[in-house]
C-alpha cells in the first residue's frame, strides 16, 4: 500500500475521521413538519460526545451504553421534543367554545 493510500485526507469537516456508531431518531408530523432529531452516542456520559462539533440547540443529543434507542431515551425524546411540539400546536389553534 502506498503512503498516499495510508493517509487519511482531512476535508476540513469536524469529526470526519470519527468512526463511532450513532443512532438518529427522526420524527415528522402529519403536516410534514420535521421535528428536531435525537442523536444517540455510545457511552455513559457526555464525555463520549465528539469534541469541536456544535449541534443546533433544538436537537436532542443523548447517550446510551450501546448507542441504541431504548425506553429511557425514547421517553426523554417524547418529553423534550414531541410533547412541547404538540403543546405549541394546541396553543396556536383557535379555542373552541362549548356554548352554541
Cα(first) to Cα(last) distance is: 81 Å
Number of strands: 3
Number of helices: 2
Main sheet specs: 3 strands, mixed
Could you walk me through the main structural features you see in this protein, from its secondary elements to its overall organization?
The radius of gyration is 20 Å and the shape is elongated. The protein is an alpha+beta fold. The chain is built from 2 helices and 3 strands; from the N terminus they run H-E-E-E-H. It has a domain at 31-92. It has helices spanning 3-6, 71-92; strands at residues 22-25, 38-42, 60-64. Residues 6-11 have low confidence and may be disordered. It is 26% helix and 14% strand. It has a 3-stranded mixed beta sheet with strand order 1-2-3, with helices on one face. The longest helix has 22 residues, at 71-92.
